[in-house]
Amino acid sequence: MSNFENFQQYPQKPGRTGMCPVDDKNMTCRTGHEMVCEHRKNLPDVIHSILEQMDDESCFAHIGDDPIHFSTSVRDMIDKFREVIFPGYFSREKLDGVNLKYTMGQTISMLHEILASQITHVLRHDCLRYGQECSECETSGYRTAIEVLKAIPDLRRMLSEDVRGAFDGDPAAKSHDEIIFSYPGIYAITVYRIAHILHAMKVPQLPRIMSEHAHSVTGIDIHPGAAIGKRFVIDHGTGIVIGETSVIGDNVRMYQNVTIGALSLPQGAGEKLRGEKRHPTIEDDVIIYSGATILGGSTVIGKGSIIGGNVWLTRSVPRDTKVFIEVPRLIYSMSETA
Prior knowledge:
Layout: H1 3-8, H2 28-40, H3 43-53, H4 71-85, H5 100-129, H6 137-150, H7 152-168, H8 176-182, H9 184-200, H10 206-218, E1 221-222, E2 227-228, E3 233-235, E4 241-242, E5 247-248, E6 253-255, E7 259-261, H11 269-273, E8 281-282, E9 287-288, E10 293-295, E11 300-301, E12 306-307, E13 312-313, E14 322-323
Parallel strand pairs: 1-4, 2-5, 3-6, 4-7, 5-8, 6-9, 7-10, 8-11, 9-12, 10-13, 12-14
């Protein structure tokens, strides 16, 4: 007997319709249904009030403009970049001498299409939404995508140095493979270095959306406009923030919860300071321990310096300087029952 026929076997009270099994002891199904229907009666009024408010110019809306569907495509694009930058690590099949050219050629071709489509989309979006002069969106998108792909050999060398830097400074790392596969710092740096190339090419929106995707995955927030040198190492990484105009030299290592940020701004200063240097400069060979906060566009941390945990800095530090906070006084309280 079918489930449908099974349902029909339940006794129905006079005046009751539907196929919910109901008896005098259990009215859950019917009362639940009635409750839902009663609440849904309020929907037309709620919808009307929301639609009326959409004309409020003090709020933001994107009505009449093309939507930008990023969540899946950006993640796919980043995954394809990682397949190309670290061949064999993130591929869906084993790579060897027989299939390398075919498989990687296909992956690079797919990456080009995704990247060109995304760049074209953001260019067209800004052109139409903000009434900009025509930039030949599709031509620009495909041309820029090719230029980005041309940068991949240098990008691979740069990221390989980042991996070596992480391995050389972390006794817990058992291999370079472990770092590539699992370290959130390398994921965040990989996405940053790609996004930085796009940012330098004046591609709107896409670089920041990429970096915010990495932020959501790793807890590491690196603005694509920051300038970061070779062998950059993020250890652990959760809570790190690196602002747009930060300049970071070679062989810099930082730990979790570090902020390389701007000083607080007075109200209305955003437009005035947009494009100005607001974030610190960290010179070569600097180590910044967890919880440190370094702020201000004129702040320079000199080469070879060490910034201790939880330090708060808003002024420059000479080269080869160690900055630590005074050891706090600890209070130990013994339990009376001990």
